[in-house]
């Protein structure tokens, strides 16, 4: 199953900011929607769609057992009614990253950049889902998605700034930062 994000004229999320962090941007668009689909090539109305990005929620590659347990213990689900702020951050890493071995990448990702150890304290405030798309012929390698309440917007800025200053990010060759908001989902 694929998750397809569509930037377009309408959608559940209103785009509040869309800016390139590194490399080429994506076209500006007023709204974002996402669908869970059996097809990577969803039929779209070209006139209403600026771009579409697809990915797969896959198994973990670098996370070790103790870390996985800590993540499961701390994490919050997507779709919390009051998490009205979200970020879609598509990322492509360089050929140099992909030429490394799994073990070398893990050393950079965690031993030297503390991606997991440094980010854990932002759970459960920030709910997250990583989608892989490197092998799907997509323009990015990863689609990263985060949801949080407005009161945690500053914490999220701190988190992305912390990660962007790591050795891991030397291997990021394209990154676009898309921030979106929606109305509160009321239970009743
Ligand atoms: C909310 C706190 C965060 C936590 C707890 C977290 C945790 C993780 C974990 C556990 C993985 C490894 C998955 C695996 O083993 O394959 C991962 C991968 C990744 N994360 Fe985060 N993350 C956080 C925030 C972020 C942010 C804010 C970004 C982007 C700005 C980001 C970008 C990525 C990317 C691109 C990968 C894939 C790395 C690769 O496979 O080369 N993460 N994250």
Report on the architecture of this protein:
This protein is of the alpha+beta class and 188 residues long. It has a domain at 70-181: Alpha-Beta Plaits, CATH 3.30.70.3420. Helices cover 23% and strands 34% of the residues. It contains 5 helices and 8 strands, in the order ββββαβαααββαβ. It has helices spanning 65-74, 95-99, 102-112, 115-119, 153-164, and strands spanning 2-8, 13-22, 31-37, 49-55, 85-93, 127-132, 142-148, 172-181. It has an 8-stranded antiparallel sheet with strand order 4-1-3-2-8-5-7-6. β2 (13-22) and β3 form a beta hairpin. The mean pLDDT is 95. The structure holds protoporphyrin IX containing FE (HEM). Protoporphyrin IX containing FE is lined by residues 60-63, 71, 89, 91, 93, 115-116, 119-120, 122-123, 126, 128, 130, 142, 144, 159-160, 163.
Keywords:
single chain; 188 residues; alpha+beta; Alpha-Beta Plaits; eight-stranded antiparallel beta sheet; 23% helix; globular; binds protoporphyrin IX containing FE
| Biggest sheet architecture | 8 strands, antiparallel
Report low-confidence residues grouped into runs of 5 or more. none
From the helix content, strand content and strand pairing, which structural class follows? alpha+beta
By CATH, the architecture of the domain at 70-181 is named 2-Layer Sandwich
Report strand %: 25-35%
The 3D shape can be described as globular
């Amino acid at each position: 199953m694929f998750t397809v994000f569509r930037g377009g004229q309408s959608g559940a999320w209103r785009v509040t900011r869309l800016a390139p962090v590194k490399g080429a941007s994506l076209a500006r668009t007023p709204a974002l929607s996402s669908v869970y689909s059996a097809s990577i090539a969803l039929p779209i109305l070209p006139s209403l769609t600026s771009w579409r990005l697809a990915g797969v929620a896959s198994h973990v590659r670098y996370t070790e057992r103790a870390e996985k347990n800590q993540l499961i213990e701390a994490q919050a689900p997507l779709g919390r009614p009051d998490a009205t702020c979200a970020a879609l951050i598509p990322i492509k890493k360089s050929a140099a990253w992909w030429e490394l071995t799994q073990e070398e990448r893990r050393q950079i990702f965690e031993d030297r950049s503390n991606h997991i150890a440094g980010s854990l304290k932002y759970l459960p405030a920030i709910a997250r889902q990583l989608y892989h798309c490197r092998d799907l012929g997509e323009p990015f390698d990863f689609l990263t998605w985060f949801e949080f309440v407005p009161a945690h917007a500053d914490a999220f800025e701190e988190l992305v700034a912390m990660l962007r200053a790591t050795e891991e990010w030397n291997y990021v060759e394209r990154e676009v930062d898309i921030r979106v908001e929606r109305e509160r989902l009321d239970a009743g």
